[in-house]
Amino acid sequence: MIIEKKKAKRVLLIKYDTFGIEILKTLEKINFMKRNLIFASLIAFATMFTSCQQSGTQTANVAANDSTTVVSNIAVINIDSVLVTYKLAEELNAAISKKYANMQSKLEQEGARFQKEAEAFQDKLQKGVFLSQQRAEEEQQRLIKKQEELQRLEASYSQQLNAEQAQMNQTLYEKISAYINKYNTPEKYQFILNKATLWYSNNAFDITADVIKGLNEEYDASK
User: Fold this and answer.
1) Where residue 147 sits, what CATH number does that domain have?
2) Domain count along the chain
């Protein structure tokens, strides 16, 4: 009987070791949400903007290489500078950062509570506190379910943040694109390019400051 109890305890300890690894994976996923939020949306937006500008850059290059064509009316914009100084971008980023902070706090609290319960389970298991193997397995299953709930919560928060960041990027892209079209009416420039797509551009072609000023004036007028 004693031998059987020892065997059962060893089986549970082995199961717990595997369970413990899964706990660490869950906590690592939670900690991952703490990193890279501040610039994540900016990078995603810059990527979107760069992709949409790529065809324009290629067209400009073709025109510049054509000996029979002279392209002089070109302007460039530093989209990174726009994104960090445009008031609407600052406002939207602040809102997402606040929501993220609340989600992070909730996950940290739930993660710390879960970890304490898991450690308590391990301590009881090693000390032989459980009256039966069945009772120990029931407690282990309860913790596994709690772990799965925590993983689902983390995944739900990640999806919410990703969706809101995507919506924010789309809003900024539409606002900036609309203003650039307005700024270039009547047509002053044949090409307005994202500076990030270019190896080099003369500062004389840079209209970033004008665009930022105009965007923020529109933002202030809308408040």
Assistant:
1) 3.30.910.20
2) 1
